[in-house]
Design brief:
The protein has four helices and four strands; from the N terminus they run E-E-E-H-H-H-E-H. The protein is an alpha+beta fold. It has a four-stranded antiparallel beta sheet.
């Protein structure tokens, strides 16, 4: 099994500049008072969520779904958990940072190689959960479905 190779942290507003976001993969979202922009990814307690996608739109599409949800639309369950704590996008978006681990494969293929890679993407997400839990004795806040509820926030 592969281990994740995350990009540098980048501010949420700059996410479309990340390399490889046309591919599926995993991503980490951190909320930090400290500017994490252009720093190496490390497993930090400020990580609030790990997510993954195997969709044809890749990471770019999944991060757009997240953004749509935090600005008041719908489409991303993890973002609905963020809204429970951070009700105003403008208040926390400047403190939101993302790091991605794109994985090159053809999500439309039924080729065994591509199917195995897509399975590894799911494995990578759970690997991140496990590493975070080992280090911080808990899951990232918005991955913990017991401690963080979804909020269908109406604006």
């Amino acid at each position: 099994m592969m281990k994740p190779k995350f990009s540098k942290w980048i501010s949420w507003s700059e996410r479309d500049k990340l390399s490889g976001i046309k591919y599926p993969g995993i991503y980490a979202l951190a909320v930090s008072e400290k500017d994490l922009s252009n720093t190496q990814y490390t497993l930090i307690e400020e990580i609030k969520y790990f997510g993954m996608t195997n969709s044809g739109g890749g990471l770019k599409s999944r991060l757009k779904q997240f953004d749509n949800t935090i600005i008041g639309k719908s489409g991303h369950g993890g973002a609905e958990r963020f809204l429970y704590k951070y009700k105003k996008h403008r208040n926390f978006a400047p403190k939101l940072f993302v790091s991605v681990c794109p994985v090159v494969c053809d999500v439309k293929s039924n080729n065994p190689k591509d199917l195995l890679i897509m399975g590894e993407i799911a494995w990578l997400e759970y690997y991140c959960f496990a590493e975070y839990k080992k280090r911080f004795k808990k899951l990232p806040l918005f991955n913990d479905k017991i401690k963080s509820s979804k909020l269908k926030y109406k604006r």
